[in-house]
Amino acid sequence: MKAMADPILVADIGGTNARFALAEMAGGRITIRDAQTFRAEDFETIRDAADAYLESVAEKPTRGCFAAAGPIINGEVDFTNSHWTLRAADIKGPLKLSAFLIVNDFYALAAGVEHLPEDAFVEVKAGAPLEGAPRLVIGPGTGLGQALIIPTSSGSKIIATEGGHVSFAPHTDEEIELLKFTAREHSYVSVERLLSGHGLVNIHRALCAIEGAQRVSLQANEITAAAIDGTYPIATKAVDMFCAILGCVSGDALLSTGARGGVVLGGGILPKIRDIFLKSAYCERFTDKGRMKDYVDAVPVKLIVKDGAAFYGAAAAMAGRQ
């Protein structure tokens, strides 16, 4: 990886927010500065948001790498959870960038793992990583992202996946009722229908119906806030169920990929409910794999708690292609 001679424009584009920053590299170390967040609903296009950011900083970078929350098809990203579309041609020329890359947001998150400082993580579950095995990066935000870090003789290779769209498999009677409730509105119930911001709302709605309680219309951030405050029992139960299902899905993904090198949890939701999450049934459900319990139990799990982690990977992706 070559050193950056000038700042690079990095962005983390999700279904709800667009985050921009400038990245620099010196001595193999990436530094992120001047980070700002813009709401997707406030801008017609991603270029408009990028222009607004560049107007606020003195430097005008000539290279950029944007991490996007969605699959990249023919150099474009149509966001599942946003009105935006990201095309290289709409960004590179208008922003006067000599080099521009689009990468999947969880590709960027995975690429940035090795560049994050130690205090960017907290331990969720102890374990002994298997040398040479892949690592899994997974986490809920606007959607449920997933990527693999594959060790090779020439360095780590990142593989972004769409594992968030696998089928939801309930494991308790209550989760069966949750599946039935969600299936009334969606003929295919993926895990992302439950493990995302909208998914948390779906779980809360389902629990209100299952328990015959009058539903209070809450957004995801309101549900997590009520759970943290302990003021609304069904909100607390919804967050607990969310964490338990994530444990099950993470363990399934580990089995499917052989990611015995470790699991890294990311996304925007978990750091906000950190204390609840660390006391939840996540680890119990993560290792509840029958005959494969010992296989899964040996794997360590840690949570990224540092904001802007995808910026590091976007910068690393650009630096690696210079």
Provide a short characterization of the protein structure.
The protein is an alpha/beta fold and 322 residues long. The chain is 34% helix and 23% strand. The longest helix has 25 residues, at 233-257.
Task: Describe the secondary structure blueprint for this structure.
Blueprint: E1 8-13, E2 17-26, E3 29-39, H1 46-55, E4 63-68, E5 76-78, E6 85-87, H2 88-91, E7 99-104, H3 105-112, E8 121-125, E9 135-140, E10 144-150, E11 157-161, H4 173-183, H5 197-210, H6 220-229, H7 233-257, E12 263-265, H8 274-278, H9 282-287, H10 293-297, E13 301-304, H11 309-319
Parallel strand pairs: 1-4, 4-7, 9-12, 12-13
Antiparallel strand pairs: 1-2, 2-3, 5-6, 8-13, 9-10, 10-11
Task: Summarize this structure as a short list of keywords or feature phrases.
6-stranded mixed β-sheet; 322 residues; alpha/beta; Hexokinase, domain 1; 11 helices; 5-stranded mixed β-sheet; single chain
